[in-house]
Write a sequence for this structure.
């Protein structure tokens, strides 16, 4: 089913059921792996700003990387 078809069918539902669908979709987006990673990164941001040992290896970011075979 295409997004357009899905929207048409959702709009046919009674208001309370449409609201339930929207709530479930939003909840699914909030629980996505990307969202969890974003929350974890935000929680650790102050640690990375305060402790330079946590970012010591970023000095190597501009170095070329060669993998041994």
């Amino acid at each position: 089913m295409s997004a357009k078809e899905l929207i048409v069918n959702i709009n046919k539902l009674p208001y309370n059921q449409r609201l339930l669908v929207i709530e479930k979709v939003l909840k699914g987006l909030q629980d996505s792996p990307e969202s969890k990673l974003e929350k974890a990164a935000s929680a650790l941001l102050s640690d990375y700003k305060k402790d330079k040992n946590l970012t010591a290896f970023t000095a190597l970011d501009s170095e070329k990387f060669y993998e041994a075979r």
